[in-house]
Amino acid sequence: MTPRGATVLAVLNGLRGDVLEAEGSDLAEPMCVRVGGRPCAPADVPGAGPRVVVFLHGLFETEYAWGRNSYGARLQRDLGVMPVYVRFNTGRHISENGAALAALLDQVVRDWPVEVERVTLIGHSMGGLVARSAGHHGGAWTRHVRHVISLGTPHTGAPLEQAVHAMSAALQLTPETRPFARFLRRRSAGIRDLRRGSLVDADWRDQDPDALRAKALTEVPLLDGVTHCFVSATITRDARHPLGRLLGDMLVLTPSAAGRRIGFADEDGLALGGTHHLALLNHPAVARQLREWISTS
Known about the structure:
about 15% strand, single chain
């Protein structure tokens, strides 16, 4: 499949991936390692090295989203690490993808062609939440983790999904607008989880997904002994500008990307001004910062 075709499928999965999986559709993307655009068993990854850097894309994305001269290619060239690209169905619950990632990383550590020395996780947007969820599920792989790095990840929720959730509740109040509410409520479980940054099954199981008010989220601690780094961005050069505070990187606000309520340390973060959400997938300043973080592990 071409990169363009993969992107079309990724958008479909992001919108309706939970339904596709429930129906057993061949269009539902299983989580797997990808090499050259094709699924690859960890044992068969060519040129495998002992220092593994796992890349996790965001909503509606695939491994192609990282670009041609990707962070992985640069880190491999500069530091000798082994980039591993994972593709997954972003329409599934984040907690389900987290469990699948934990199982996949256990397989990577077990079946890798050489002994794994260390593992770094790098997630863009939703990918950062999936990485944290995987850490909560745990496994033998966690003993090898040195860094978990999130790029524009809505750790405490995304305002756009929060607005859509509130709008769907408001449109449900009158008969004339209920068809619009039903349309909005067809969005996938993965999109819904972005409203508050939900990471575990208990946050959604046996809960009304359309309830305007929901119970408090389960607190998920950060992995012990692991450095959790983050990159946040604002469309304004000065993050303190009122517009930057209001819009963040156009999809995620700085306090959410910086994980200020979940224990991230400011000194382990990079704040970029004059940058939007998708630019974090391939940005020279981010590339430099990733190299610095990973070279110290």
